Automatic annotation (TrEMBL):
Descriptive protein name: Crossover junction endodeoxyribonuclease RuvC
Organism: Robbsia andropogonis
A GO cellular component annotation in the UniProt record: cytoplasm
Gene this protein is translated from: ruvC
Required cofactor names: Mg(2+)
Residues bound to Mg(2+) 2: E83
PROSITE patterns in UniProt: RUVC
Subunit structure and binding partners: Homodimer which binds Holliday junction (HJ) DNA. The HJ becomes 2-fold symmetrical on binding to RuvC with unstacked arms; it has a different conformation from HJ DNA in complex with RuvA. In the full resolvosome a probable DNA-RuvA(4)-RuvB(12)-RuvC(2) complex forms which resolves the HJ.
EC numbers on record: 3.1.21.10
The organism's taxonomic lineage, starting at the top: Bacteria, Pseudomonadati, Pseudomonadota, Betaproteobacteria, Burkholderiales
Length: 198
């Protein structure tokens, strides 16, 4: 006797839209992208950059913090996603980027947003299908996935890409959570976002 299917046709509820704010942190330029997800359809809302100017470090971090918090107030997202810092050859650059990222995260959490974090590799795999994708490939695929008339700038494209990555991750995790009782009956469970044997 064949096992029952995991998904029963015709049982999906009407999809509730989820608005996602993506952030590509940077000390000079922080990219942002806002998308809305309804079921498996992604819609573009807005994108752009926050420029921190040429002031001292604390002033620039304040601009990033306030700018990100204002985006959360203006666009009213349900959640946020931010790109993780990779360790650069230059430790000073990595430390500065980490501080800019921290300021952005503080702006998000003070707006009471749940924040998910993704690596550049995860972003590229979600958007292009390859972790070795180049910046221009990410720009082109973001424009295609969101039906944009032109290419977004690189910082905005990365921010939109991290939002798309979060939308895809949410789809998969949501489906796995929905299937949890049936998976348990088959000796499987979801652990840290992965399907494992019980």
């Amino acid at each position: 006797m064949a096992p029952a299917p995991l998904v029963t046709p015709g049982t999906a509820q009407a999809a509730v839209p989820t608005r996602i704010l993506g952030i590509d942190p940077g000390l000079r330029v922080t990219g942002f992208g806002v998308i809305e997800q309804r079921a498996h359809v992604l819609s573009y809302i807005s994108s752009g950059v926050i420029r921190s100017g040429e002031g001292d470090l604390p002033s620039r971090l304040k601009i990033i913090f306030e700018g990100v918090r204002e985006l959360a107030v203006q666009f009213k997202p349900d959640c946020a996603a931010i790109e993780k810092v990779f360790v650069n050859v230059n430790p000073q650059s990595t430390l500065l980027l980490g501080q800019a990222r921290g300021a952005a995260i503080c702006g998000l959490v003070t707006a009471n947003l749940p924040v998910a974090e993704y690596t550049a590799l995860q972003l590229k795999q979600a958007v292009v299908g390859s972790g070795r994708a180049k910046k221009d490939q990410v720009q082109e695929m973001v424009a295609r996935l969101l039906s944009l008339s032109g290419l977004p700038g690189t910082d905005a494209a990365d921010a939109l890409g991290v939002a798309i990555c979060h939308a895809h991750a949410g789809d998969v995790l949501g489906q796995l959570r929905t299937l949890a009782p049936q998976l348990a009956g088959r000796g499987m469970r979801v652990r840290r976002g992965r399907l494992v044997e019980s």
